[in-house]
UniProtKB/TrEMBL annotation, chain A:
Domain of life: Bacteria
ChsH2 C-terminal OB-fold domain span: 52-107
The protein's name in its UniProt record: Putative nucleic-acid-binding protein containing a Zn-ribbon
Matches recorded under Pfam families: OB_ChsH2_C
UniProtKB/TrEMBL annotation, chain B:
InterPro entries with a match to the protein in the record: Thiolase, Thiolase-like, Thiolase_C_2
Thiolase C-terminal domain location: 236-378
Pfam family, one: Thiolase_C_1
Residues annotated as transmembrane: none
Source organism: Jannaschia rubra
Phylogenetic placement of the source organism: Bacteria, Pseudomonadati, Pseudomonadota, Alphaproteobacteria, Rhodobacterales
Domain of life: Bacteria
Name listed for the protein in its UniProt record: Thiolase
GO molecular function: acetyl-CoA C-acyltransferase activity
CDD domains in alphabetical order: SCP-x_thiolase
Amino acid sequence: MSDIDTSRQGPQATYQAFLAQGRFMIQRSRETGEHVFWPRVAAPGGAGDLEWVAPSGNGTVYAITVNRARSGDRNIALIELAEGVRMMSTLPRVETAPIGAPVTARIEEAADGPRVVFDLTGGDAA
Amino acid sequence: MSVDLRGRAAIVGMATAGTGEAPGFSAMELLGQAALAAVADAGLTMGDIDGVFAATSSHAFPTMSVVEYLGLRPRHFDGTNVGGSSFELHLLQATLALEAGLCDAALICYGSNQRTAGGRLVSMSEPQWHETPYHPRHPITAYGLAASRHMHEYGTTRENLADVALAARDWANLNPDAFARGPLTKEEVLASRMISDPLTKADCCLVTDGAAACVLVRADRARDLAAKPVYFLGGGAANWHRSIVAMPDLTTTAAVESGPRALEMAKVGREELDLVMLYDAFTINTVLFLEDLGFCPKGEGGRFVGDGRIAPGGELAVNTNGGGLSCVHPGMYGLFLIAEAVAQIRGQAGERQIADCDLALCHGNGGTLSSQCTAILGSEATL
């Protein structure tokens, strides 16, 4: 038995490094084609042959809430990517959006680092 | 091979302490008082306790802290922490340990002073790194997301959710120990301050202090003890995710598995249940669990709770203590579900007592609709 090679960084650090380069990347199994988010060492189905691919950036709003606070209202959404995986994100340019609305990803430089956010596809009229 | 656990152990002591507000007490001081009272209720001494089961929101090693504080010397202990559902799981683990002879008297306990200590939910739950950039306010963000999806798919309305809050308050008004009592109208619920759409303050559980403890022994010994035994008939657990991001379908929880597992072990049909205790951290929980445990079809929960169906005098007795919404919610509420089931099966529930309560279901929820643990409790007549 030999120790697993960990000379390269893990999936979380890799994802964040891509993001720092301005790239939104997710994982996909070479054999099954199954996409994976959030990044990990194996797909939930067990596939360990994960490679990094650029998603289309297209998705839909799966669920959405608006956190109401004195400091301001902001939405938090679960976005279902066209690749079939779900991620937490936000739609910074609108107060809220209907579930099912098509959205497009972009990378935003937030106070605590770069993050993937979404805009309504084809305009921001919510 | 499987071991038949039905009716093999019984709750023979039960107590709560500091329900609501208990200024001047630490979490462990409240837990300790509940534990001492539960052991006394069983007619046992602390020296008899040789199994300890605990999970809290403020102790990294809860069984160690409990053991030291109470001067115990247990030979078996289990600090499994699956959030608010821990204690339904502990019933199962304690029964297994008793049956295996690993211990003879098991103490399950919890305590929190979160209300008087700060008035906010105390949690040791670590942030999920892939969620952190979006600053969710858990747990309510997750439950708001689930509610939004349920409304979208099934047409559930804020009025439906309000019916859950109103039923809980109506029960609480029959319970002198409940923290939130007094009249509440649908208009007041709907006008409550929005916190995380579509959930308002009135859709959220209380932030209270409180501790609870129970003692289990094997059934053969239970009959000789002071209190009327409440038997463990079955338990089941299921867990599919940790983060709300990874919940397969936001409208269906793993209770669809834990419920049938518990009922099968208990050899009980859900139509036989006299009391249904559901972990109502938010109003949407009650709707989801009524569906997932099979009391109504998926998607119908919002309409099911209308017309006072789960309120006092309704056809299904749900959360008769007033629930986490109006009775008590000290961070982790699961042991209070059990406390109410014990009170009802013993016939000690006062004005809110339901007639002929022999069979109760307690359904615990932990995390963000993550861990689901169901336990079935029954009177001697159900053996």
